[in-house]
Amino acid sequence: VEFNITSGSKLALNIALIERNRVHGWIAIFREGKGFIEQGTTMG
Asked: If exposure means fewest CB atoms within 10 Å of the residue's CB, which of 15, 18, 38, 44 is most exposed?
């Protein structure tokens, strides 16, 4: 399969954006979980 330079770089950019969004998603989940745990310990 042949890719020209523009479609190849566009694909790479899309993958980079997906990876960055996934990392931000994990950070958000981790922060929410940590905040929830801290609330639980202070409530208890």
From this structure: 44
